[in-house]
TrEMBL record:
InterPro entries: Dymeclin. Pfam families: Dymeclin (PF09742). Keywords: Lipoprotein, Myristate. This is Dymeclin. The keyword Lipoprotein applies. Belongs to the dymeclin family. GO terms for cellular component: Golgi apparatus. It comes from Lasius niger (Black garden ant). One of its GO terms (biological process) is Golgi organization.
Length: 124
């Protein structure tokens, strides 16, 4: 799947992802799949930021793909559900007491990692 370049590309991508995002929205509070995807993206970002001399292009593509998937799902959530509901989906599944203590923790980690990625990873 190639990233959207034009507005029409974005509309086509949105329409192709709509059913999958609807199903994710229905099941995610129980499964926590979106939170797991964010965790995968965080792991990939940390691998990319690690000072390893022999990083390969596969690691870069895996990071890109994970971030692209997170972007598409977040876009759908922002357009479909409110902010509080979106945060529940990002942090799901959690118990009620853990939810109060860890509110937005995963989202904060993602934003911090994205900022670090933008600052520290050179463009090739």
């Amino acid at each position: 799947m190639r990233p959207p370049i034009t507005r029409n590309d974005q509309i086509e991508l949105d329409s192709r992802l709509d059913l999958s995002c609807q199903q994710l929205l229905v099941n995610n509070l129980i499964t926590g799949n979106f939170g797991t995807l964010i965790q995968v993206a965080l792991v990939r970002i940390n691998e990319l930021l690690a000072p390893v001399q022999n990083q390969n292009i596969i690691s870069t593509w895996q990071t890109y793909n994970a971030l692209f998937a997170v972007r598409c799902i977040l876009k759908y959530f922002i357009e479909t559900i409110g902010e509080e509901e979106m945060l529940k989906h990002i942090e799901a599944p959690q118990t009620a007491s853990a939810n109060e203590a860890l509110s937005s923790l995963r989202l904060e980690e993602l934003l911090d990692a994205l900022i670090e990625l933008i600052i520290d990873v050179p463009l090739w």
